[in-house]
Amino acid sequence: MHLLNRAIVAALKTIAVLGLCGMSLLTVVDAAGRYLLNRPVSGTVELIELMMITVIFSSIPLMTRVHGHITVDSFSHFMSPAMLRAQDRLAAVIAAVVSGFLTWVTLQKARSTADYGDITPLLHIPLAPFVYFMAVLLALDAVYQLINLFSPPGQLQDTPTYD
Q: Considering the domain boundaries, does residue 8 fall inside one?
């Protein structure tokens, strides 16, 4: 199980890094082509939008796995350790339910996108694979939320906090 988790994390990190690098490179090439050669790259906006999907949705489960989401803990210093654990578990339940619901909604959207054959306007790239990608990663996020729910108390705070 640990090996599978490491492989998933490595794949997600690779997808996110390649997406970010691709967006950066495409932006530089497009800007240089536009302003130096008067020849912008066709479909830059579409490609960057699709790469944003890969970066954002591959990062969501990564952040969930390491408890890296932004949290506001204005009252946590007033709570006992047991209360903090209960709060973490309640947050994991709510987040798992929300991620599960979003998975279901996104999966329905992916099916309709595939059925209609939706494509990008300029480059005619099919959208269904990207929407399915979103649904799969939302499902993975729900799984990681459930893992957080059932993790031993000592493992719930495995990232540094800054006061």
A: yes
